[in-house]
Design brief:
mainly alpha, disordered C terminus, 462 residues, Growth Hormone, Chain: A, single chain
């Protein structure tokens, strides 16, 4: 655990965390912009249910490619070059989408935007976790989720005010993404490289310089030695390393949590707000207003999560969120099925958003950023986040098709069942990680793996 003599440069740590987390803002932008644009895109490109799902999900396909690129890039060249490339891709894709003349080019540019989102979704939480002291790591990684929800809220507000500007409003909705992209690119230039990557790459002098800016001499000494110890005897890692017995439990846990964060179903609410509220009888203005309300609630409860993630802990928040969503989805499905007033539907949509924002949304990213050992963090995070985006594609691609066959309410019964199964998994498999350094978590993983092996050998002998 951290010693009492260790002090930190809190302003510096928060500053570089927020700059890195600007990638989260762009993530939120690309994630949310489709919700306001879909009513216009349906007319522009004459979308049926299949194409609507594929157009929405094309972002996720790009995210898968981006996560794979980022994993290799992060381990070979560092976290900073990957963040810079993500910012550049964001800017180019925003302009490309805005000037799309047909559906094929739009989908190609949406796929490119996904590459930027995928890179940022992996690199931003990883970078923040690696530059943050253990006692504030959860809060700092949650800053990335905070910027995501700010991106969602601002984008929804812009969409709301652009909606009355004519049939080409969607072009402005996407094109304005170039502004935060350029700001992010300029900010990343100022960031230091991750000290853990620098040590892994043999750049001890530069690693110490970065650690000196983060904390006191005692912090630098203990952190430096702990990182060196965790990297002793390791070599450049490939994806084969993920199948080693000692790291397999962490990899399995990371993948499962990543997939569950998507299959819990909440991103259907974010991406298909207009579809859900249209089925409840809301007009276009009310549909876009609901996206703004969702953004406000999302932001408020993300701030609450940042306050509690290092106090209450990761595990309790995940349990509350998964079980709570299961119950709320059943109620929401019932209301939609029986044509209750829009206001009642809105209340339970916002309750679902609040539960997700305080639990599965930020905490999943925190856990993925901290449960993997230093030597495989890049490739392991890449695999987990590829799994997350694969699940996201399946979710958003299938919703319009399921809604057409079952009614808009039907899929929510399925999501309720998945959330309950997720609650059982978290209760059994997820251990608390708050307050422990990344190296202490790695030591615990190895100890538990050895312990499990000993138990298995003893059972075989009996």
């Amino acid at each position: 655990m951290l010693k009492s003599t260790e002090t930190f440069n809190s302003n510096y740590i928060i500053g570089i965390s927020f700059i890195s987390a600007l990638g989260g803002y762009l993530f939120g932008f690309d994630f949310a912009v489709i919700s306001g644009a879909l009513p216009f895109l349906r007319t522009q490109f004459m979308l049926d249910a299949w194409w609507e799902g594929f157009l929405t999900g094309s972002l996720a396909l790009g995210c898968i490619a981006g996560s794979l690129i980022a994993g290799n890039l992060a381990d070979r060249y560092g976290r900073k070059p990957g963040l810079m490339l993500a910012a550049f891709i964001f800017a180019i894709s925003s302009i490309g989408i805005a000037f799309s003349s047909g559906l094929p080019f739009f989908i190609v540019m949406r796929f490119a935007a996904g590459i930027g989102v995928g890179m940022a979704s992996m690199l931003c939480p990883m970078y923040i976790a690696e530059i943050s002291p253990a006692k504030v790591r959860g809060r700092n990684v949650a800053i990335n989720q905070l910027t995501i929800v700010i991106g969602i809220l601002v984008t929804n507000l812009v969409n709301y005010f652009l909606a009355d500007t004519g049939p080409d409003a969607w072009r402005w909705m996407f094109g304005l993404g170039v502004i935060p992209s350029v700001i992010f690119l300029i900010g990343v230039i100022w960031l230091p490289e991750s000290p853990r990557w620098l040590l892994k790459d043999g750049q001890e002098g530069k690693a110490k310089l970065v650690l000196d800016k983060i904390g006191s001499a005692s912090f630098v000494d203990t952190t430096f030695k702990a990182i060196q110890k965790s990297l002793t005897g390791t070599k450049k890692q490939s994806y084969k390393a993920l199948f080693e017995k000692s790291v397999r439990p962490a990899v399995t846990l990371g993948i499962t949590l990543a997939v569950f964060q998507q299959f819990c179903g909440i991103n259907v609410v974010f991406n298909y707000t207009s579809t859900i509220f249209e089925s409840a009888g809301a007009n276009l203005n009310r549909q876009l207003f609901e996206t703004v309300a969702i953004g406000v609630v999302n932001l408020a409860f993300t701030l609450l999560a940042m306050w509690q993630v290092d106090k209450l802990g990761r595990r309790p928040l995940m349990l509350i969120g998964s079980l709570g969503l299961s119950v709320v989805y059943i109620i929401l499905a019932f209301l939609l099925q029986n044509h209750y007033p829009v206001a009642m539907v809105s209340v339970f949509v916002l309750v679902a958003i609040s539960l997700y924002a305080i639990s599965l949304a930020p905490v999943t990213w925190v856990l993925i950023s901290e449960i993997f050992p230093n030597r495989i963090r890049g490739v392991a995070s890449s695999v987990a986040i590829v799994s997350l985006w694969g699940a996201y594609f399946i979710l958003v691609f299938t919703f319009p098709i399921l809604a057409k066959k079952l009614g808009t309410y039907g899929p929510f019964y399925l999501y309720a069942a998945i959330c309950f199964l997720g609650f059982l998994f978290i209760k059994k498999k997820v251990k608390e990680t708050k307050g422990q350094t990344l190296e202490e978590l790695e030591d615990n993983l190895i100890t538990n793996s050895h312990s499990d092996s000993s138990v298995n050998r003893a059972l075989k002998e009996e």
